[in-house]
Amino acid sequence: MGMKTLIFIALAGALFSCTQNGSDVKGGGTPSRNPAPPAAAQGEILYHQFCSGCHGEKGTGTDKGPPFLSSIYEPNHHGDESFVLAARNGSRAHHWSFGDMPPIPGVKEEDVRKITGYVRWLQKEAHIY
């Protein structure tokens, strides 16, 4: 299977599973008071550099972007690859009313994977999954 086919399948699956509208998106978790573990520390630094301006400190959301401490972003609904694709290509608004997310210039795929590791740690700390 080619890379384009895999990306299409991943996007189609994400879009198919996205059934909630923007009015249903709320942060449900409480941000961790614990310091990020060593495995997530680099992701935390990168998250603050590339993501926190819109998605808030510790994934709590802002008036510019949704919270990651929401079941909408847990791995069974938005897998790790969806974070990579959103950073690379941007994302059309489908759960929120913040408008489309633009691609994030300057962030590398390996950085997004570290950021995703940090976000997953935040979600576990908040009992999202």
Key features?
0% strand; 129 residues; single chain; globular; mainly alpha
Topology:
Elements: H1 3-17, H2 38-50, H3 52-55, H4 80-89, H5 109-125
Q: Brief description of this entry?
A:
The chain has 129 residues and is mainly alpha-helical. Helices cover 46% and strands 0% of the residues. It is globular.
- Count of individual helical segments: 5
Shape: globular
The residue-averaged pLDDT reads 84
Order of H and E elements? HHHHH
> Which structural class should the secondary elements be placed in?
mainly alpha
CATH architecture: Orthogonal Bundle
Just give the CATH class. Answer: Mainly Alpha
Count all strands and give the number: 0
Percent helix: 40-55%
The CATH topology annotation reads as: Cytochrome Bc1 Complex, Chain D, domain 2
Largest sheet: none
Kindly give the count of domains: 1
Whole-Å distance between the termini? Answer: 31 Å
Radius of gyration of CA atoms, rounded to a whole number: 14 Å
The residue ranges in which pLDDT falls below 50 over 5 or more consecutive positions are 5-25
Supply the CATH superfamily name: Cytochrome c-like domain
Strand residue percentage? under 5%
